[in-house]
Amino acid sequence: MNSIELLPSDFKEKLKLHYAKAIKAGHPSRADDYEHEFFDFNFDLVSNPEATFYGRVEGDTMIEVGIHHGDIAVIDKSLDPQDGDLIVAYVNNEFVIKFLDLTHLKDGYIELQPANRKYKPIRIYDVKNFEVWGVVVWTITNWRK
Question: pTM score, two decimals?
Fold first, then answer.
């Protein structure tokens, strides 16, 4: 099962990093497409700093959507979770990262869907032992491990 270690965030200081506006995944383009601007993770990836946390992913249950062990999830607790959202849930006394599946509500349960065929969905029948802790809005992957 994937779990997630929650990390503190600090939005007081700006961290301006240069980034190229247009990085093409297809054919090369003109040099002027690569003008530099500034990007700040805290301010450009976060809509609601008071309700946003970072979490480090542990495990391999989300690898089929490109979320790997050690990746960082940006989690917004202020968002209303919708069917299909990637969420962080508190279930069975731990935090997990899964897709929220509300299609079985009429059958009396919801499912937390992994993205790895080796794992089965987690069925939630009793919402007293379950909480959607937040909605994942971004993930950050380290490609040079």
Answer: 0.76
